[in-house]
Specification:
With 479 residues, the protein is an alpha/beta fold. It folds into two domains: 206 residues, Rossmann fold (3-Layer(aba) Sandwich), CATH 3.40.50; 227 residues, Rossmann fold (3-Layer(aba) Sandwich), CATH 3.40.50.300. Helices cover 36% and strands 13% of the residues. Helix 2 runs parallel beside helix 3, helix 3 packs across helix 4 and helix 6 packs across helix 8.
Length: 479
């Protein structure tokens, strides 16, 4: 099936062909006719399935047919999204597919000056793409009028609720007219989203193109059981030995995103971090550098990663496992986009073992684990309280569990010869002085070998080893 069979107008068909799109994806094929037929729709589709075009194309077509070349005044379509990056991505889609139309688009979000956004609103706009916080600011200031909204789209609805935007959504919806077409798109469908759809949608048609929360089949997935303190070591080895060139690394916190990016750069792997504490300009620079291949690795938190649409991401690495299994689907879906293949690696420490169990329950599959030189039996076999995050007081450092670190028999990802001594010599420059000083200080506090529980093959341990090269081995499905 081609786009022409969906009764899409010629200017949009022309724009789609210019972008190289000829055949619609399943979500587009099923959703576009419904939206053109004035139906309210709940669309459930994983990231990377083309759901943005599924609502952008019909909105462009219906507004063009209704207002033609009439000068823009106040918004007639509102697309509400959780993050700035996603807002920018959707705006680019409107611009691309509406190249040969005269409609005006505006994106508004926080983290940047509000005055230019107010000026653009006053000049007139047909389609408004916004994040909830900044939109409410403009509404409260009387700078934006939503009384003529004909299309209301809530994109990434599940993430909106996860981020605590439900009150903002309800408040914004109170400014919208009753007679409008509403579209909700989400990768998952929780009970809370179901309640929200009943509140805002009229007899909606539910479209689900793939089983809910099922990983994309073309993504090769592996679990690495590892102690928390060895994760950076493993990350460096994987990126280096597999010569990864376009890697998206997910971490749990903003602080850790900066820490991991810093460690990568100190070991001559170009990287940058993207998270909520960074200004919009900083986030945009990092994202543009990643797209342009100026950096090899982008380290991100879940919230900041929403809206990252980068072609040819070869690997997604879960440095920290998500505490919500649905987020695992969103994360790994950043690779293997548009039908290509991809790889997802996940690092699982003992305190994350229950997160892995939840992921495997919702995906209904056992993820194969990869043996490696930092393998942790403690992480692999953790149960009960040991498999859950430990409550920590402020400033408390995690305990060292390397005493449970052991190699398994058989072929490993890294054979007996592999370690990082090649990085430790002065010539390589791969060894960072901060890490070295930290390791030396720890050695002073642990004089005897029996008291030193650190991994002898860790980059943070000053002890030498005999090998210099790392060689990839087999993966194992044994658990």
């Amino acid at each position: 099936m081609e786009f022409e069979s969906l009764k899409i107008i010629e200017p949009i068909i022309k724009a789609l062909k210019k972008k190289g799109y000829v055949e619609p994806t399943p979500i587009q094929e099923k959703t576009i006719p419904l939206l053109l037929d004035n139906k309210d729709v709940i669309g459930i589709a994983q990231t990377g399935t083309g759901k943005t075009a599924a609502f952008v194309v019909p909105i462009l077509q219906k507004l063009h047919e209704k207002i033609g070349n009439i000068k823009a005044t106040i918004p007639k379509a509102l697309i509400l999204v959780p993050t700035r990056e996603l807002a920018e991505q959707i705006t680019e889609s409107f611009k691309a597919y509406g190249t040969f139309l005269s409609l005006k688009y505006l994106v508004i979000y926080g983290g940047v000056g509000i005055r230019p956004q107010i000026n653009n609103l006053q000049r007139g706009v047909d389609i408004l793409i916004a994040t909830p916080g900044r939109l409410l600011d403009l509404i409260n200031q009387g700078k934006v009028n939503l009384r003529n909204i004909e299309f209301f789209v809530l994109d990434e609805a599940d993430r909106m609720l996860d981020m605590g935007f439900v009150r903002d959504i309800n408040k914004i919806a109170s400014f919208l007219p009753k007679n409008k077409q509403s579209l909700f798109f989400s990768a998952t469908m929780s009970e809370e989203i179901t309640r929200l759809t009943k509140k805002f949608l009229k007899d909606p048609v539910r479209m689900e193109v793939t089983p809910q929360a099922t990983p994309i089949e073309k993504i090769e997935q592996f679990i690495f059981f590892i102690d928390m303190e060895n994760k950076i070591e493993l990350l460096l080895d994987l990126i280096d030995q597999q010569k990864m060139s376009c890697v998206l690394v997910f971490v749990k916190t903003k602080h850790k995103a900066d820490k991991v990016a810093r460690a990568l750069n100190q070991n001559h792997i170009s990287a940058d971090a993207i998270h909520g504490n960074k200004s919009q300009s900083q986030r945009q620079i990092a994202l543009n550098d990643f797209k342009a291949k100026k950096i090899r690795v982008l380290v991100a938190t879940d919230i900041a990663a929403r809206g990252i649409d980068v072609k040819n991401i070869s690997h997604v690495i879960n440095f920290d496992l998500p505490n919500e299994p649905e987020n695992y689907i969103h994360r790994i879906g950043r690779t293997a986009r548009a039908g290509s293949k991809g790889t997802a690696y996940s690092f699982c420490s003992a305190e994350e073992r229950e997160y892995l169990n939840q992921i495997e329950r919702i995906t209904k599959t056992k993820t194969p684990h990869a043996e490696h030189k930092y393998h942790s039996n403690l992480a692999k076999n953790a149960t009960g309280r040991d498999a859950k995050p430990k409550p920590r007081t402020r400033g408390q450092r995690p305990s060292n569990r390397n005493g449970n670190n052991s190699k398994q028999g058989g072929s490993n990802w890294y054979d007996q010869k592999s370690n990082s001594s090649g990085r430790k010599n002065n010539k390589s420059g791969r060894r960072n002085s901060d890490f070295k000083n930290r390791s030396n200080n720890r050695n002073k506090n642990n004089q005897s070998k029996d008291k030193d529980n650190r991994n002898p093959k860790s980059r943070f341990n000053p002890r030498k080893s005999n090998s210099s090269r790392v060689r990839m081995g087999r993966t194992s499905h044994r658990r």
